[in-house]
Amino acid sequence: MPIPDSIKKLEEYEKKTGASLHFRQKDAVRMVVNYSLCVLTGGPGTGKTTTVKTVAESFSDAGV
For the segment 9-62, what is each residue's pLDDT rounded down to a tens digit? Predict the structure, then answer.
């Protein structure tokens, strides 16, 4: 179930948390909300946790 206005949600998350997501993190969030299966990989300090938190917040805000 895609979350409407995912770009708007990303902007709201950045304002709320003070985080500044990299364009690749934003792409990852969009992929997760639009596809039923995604794999998020990366080395230490690449933003995996922030990306997952953003996804969780997006789903929570959408009531999913």
Answer: 777 778 888 888 888 888 888 888 788 898 999 999 998 998 888 888 877 777
**What sign for the dihedral angle of Cα 50, 53, 58, 61?**
negative
CA distance 64 to 60: 6
CB 40 within 8 A of CB 28: yes
Rounded to two decimals, the pTM is 0.72
Is the dihedral angle over the CA atoms 22, 28, 33, 39 positive or is it negative? negative
Q: 3: which 2 tokens?
A: 């979350």
